[in-house]
């Protein structure tokens, strides 16, 4: 039996070493270790082995089985490794790969998101309104009379039914006050439209962000504090501001905000960045008559409002010389943000 086992070992190891592929290895396994395999058959004969031979033969049987199992595993691994090597033949894995191109948010969207985050921290909620508006929401309610130049057919896109593309996001102030009573503290980003000749600083469709705060005792100090905090978050804490008296029909007093910031490069120039003011009581009165109540009692409530152009702000912050870059979808431009 010893001899038979030794012979089986030699034969099996030779067969495994010569197995050319995985199928051949599997066949060898069945032939020697399978249910009817040669080694299985031998081990069944163990019961006829004499008592004194049993330990020796048993140990030999085990050795042979272990050796055959190990050889099978080894051969299989070697075959797999050479299959891998064949698959990579001619491929230089040390060459750099092709990077996939990641998209990103548009620079105006990035700025808008940042602005929303800053105002959120001061308790402002997001408000929205339609792009196609009534003349009342865009002009009348905002104390802008019929003969105001902004209402000229040459300056505004009118629909055949008399509605128009909103010329500013101030319409959302009106929409919000129509539907909710004070106190109100909202910001409203959105598109605005004007019949402007498109050039380096004008687009027929652009983006604004509006703000409105109405409550008891709101003052110009609150307006200045809020806008200064906001613009310092954007431009850095060393930014300087100037609130220059101006005129808007819907605020009294009204201001334009100018900024000087070292972060902008041209640090000794004042740049106009926003319009703002204290809500004109006439605006509250038109809201009241629309609502049919006195929710916005001008004797009780005051408020401030502001609006700025996101495109213009993005241009200033990034040093972009031409507003049209933001709409051309040129990857060479957008990839810089
Ligand atoms: N609506 C103005 C514009 O488009 C900007 C503006 C100025 C908005 C003053 C306001 C404000 O809310 O108070 O030029």
UniProtKB/TrEMBL annotation:
InterPro entries named among the record's database cross-references: aa-tRNA-synth_II (IPR006195), aa-tRNA-synth_II/BPL/LPL (IPR045864), Phe-tRNA-synth_IIc_asu (IPR004529), Phe-tRNA_ligase_II_N (IPR004188), Phe_tRNA_ligase_alpha1_bac (IPR022911), Phenylalanyl-tRNA_Synthase (IPR002319), tRNA-bd_arm (IPR010978)
Pfam families with a match to the protein in the record: Phe_tRNA-synt_N, tRNA-synt_2d
Cofactor: Mg(2+)
CDD domains: PheRS_alpha_core
Catalytic activity reported: tRNA(Phe) + L-phenylalanine + ATP = L-phenylalanyl-tRNA(Phe) + AMP + diphosphate + H(+)
Record-listed Mg(2+) binding positions: 252
GO biological process: phenylalanyl-tRNA aminoacylation
Gene3D superfamilies: Bira Bifunctional Protein, Domain 2
Subcellular localization, as worded in the UniProt entry: Cytoplasm
Self-association and partners: Tetramer of two alpha and two beta subunits.
PANTHER family: PHENYLALANINE--TRNA LIGASE, MITOCHONDRIAL (PTHR11538:SF41), PHENYLALANYL-TRNA SYNTHETASE (PTHR11538)
The protein, known as: Phenylalanine--tRNA ligase alpha subunit
């Amino acid at each position: 039996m010893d001899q038979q086992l030794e012979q089986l070992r030699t034969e099996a190891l030779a067969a495994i070493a010569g197995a050319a592929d995985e199928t051949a290895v599997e066949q060898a396994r069945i032939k020697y270790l399978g249910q009817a395999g040669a080694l299985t058959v031998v081990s069944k004969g163990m019961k006829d082995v004499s008592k004194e031979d049993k330990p020796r033969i048993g140990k030999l049987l085990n050795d042979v089985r272990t050796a055959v199992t190990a050889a099978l595993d080894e051969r299989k691994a070697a075959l797999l490794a050479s299959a891998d090597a064949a698959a990579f033949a001619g491929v230089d894995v040390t060459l750099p790969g092709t990077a996939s191109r990641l998209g990103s948010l548009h620079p105006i969207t990035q700025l808008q998101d940042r602005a929303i985050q800053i105002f959120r921290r001061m308790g402002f909620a997001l408000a929205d309104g339609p792009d196609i508006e009534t003349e009342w929401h865009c002009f009348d309610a905002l104390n802008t009379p019929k003969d105001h130049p902004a209402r000229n057919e040459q300056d505004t896109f009118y629909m055949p039914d008399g509605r128009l593309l909103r010329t500013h996001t101030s319409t959302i102030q009106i929409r919000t006050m129509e539907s909710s009573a004070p106190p109100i503290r909202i910001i409203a980003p959105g598109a605005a439209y004007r019949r402007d000749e498109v050039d380096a600083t004008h687009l027929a469709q652009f983006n604004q962000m509006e703000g409105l705060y109405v409550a008891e005792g709101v003052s110009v100090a609150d307006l200045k504090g809020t806008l200064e905090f906001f613009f310092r978050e954007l431009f850095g804490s060393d930014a300087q501001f100037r609130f220059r008296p101006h005129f808007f029909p819907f605020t009294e007093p009204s201001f334009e905000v100018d900024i000087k910031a070292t972060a902008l490069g041209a640090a000794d120039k004042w740049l106009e960045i926003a319009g703002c003011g204290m809500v004109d009581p006439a605006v509250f009165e038109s809201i009241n008559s629309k609502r049919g109540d006195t929710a916005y009692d001008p004797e009780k409530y005051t408020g401030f409002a502001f609006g700025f152009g996101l495109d213009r702000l993005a241009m200033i912050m990034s040093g972009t010389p031409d507003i049209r870059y933001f709409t051309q979808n040129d990857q060479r431009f957008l990839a810089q943000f």
